[in-house]
Amino acid sequence: MQVAPDVKLLLFSASGFDGRLRAAARASRDVELVDLDRLYTGE
After folding, report:
1. What is the DSSP letter of 9?
2. Residue 42, pLDDT score
3. What is the pTM of this model?
4. How far apart are CA 40 and CA 21, in angstroms?
5. What are the per-10-residue average pLDDT scores of the chain (43 residues)?
6. Strand partners, 32
7. CA distance 29 to 4
8. Ramachandran region of residue 16, left (φ > 0), alpha (ψ -120 to 50) or beta?
9. DSSP element (H, E) containing 12
């Protein structure tokens, strides 16, 4: 199966993300972390 190049994995959290996950997401172009602040105020 071929995946479109602009597909992203969105991870949502009400309590935030740990530092290791944040570092992994920064290193990956296809992962986005969405916490409550980002959800309600944007980026």
Report:
1. E
2. 86
3. 0.77
4. 21
5. 82 95 95 94 84
6. 10
7. 13
8. left
9. strand 9-13
CA-CA distance, 12 to 31, in Å (whole number)?
A: 11
Instruction: Provide the CA 17 distance to its chain's centre, in angstroms.
Output: 10
DSSP string across 15-35: S---HHHHHHHHT-TTEEEEE
Tokens representing 17 are: 């993300």
Who's near 18: CB < 8 A, 6+ residues apart? Answer: none
Nearest-angstrom CA–CA distance, 18 and 35:
11
Own/partner pairs for 11-15, CB < 8 Å, 24+ apart? Answer: 12/39
Q: Is 37 helix (H, G, I), strand (E, B) or coil?
A: helix
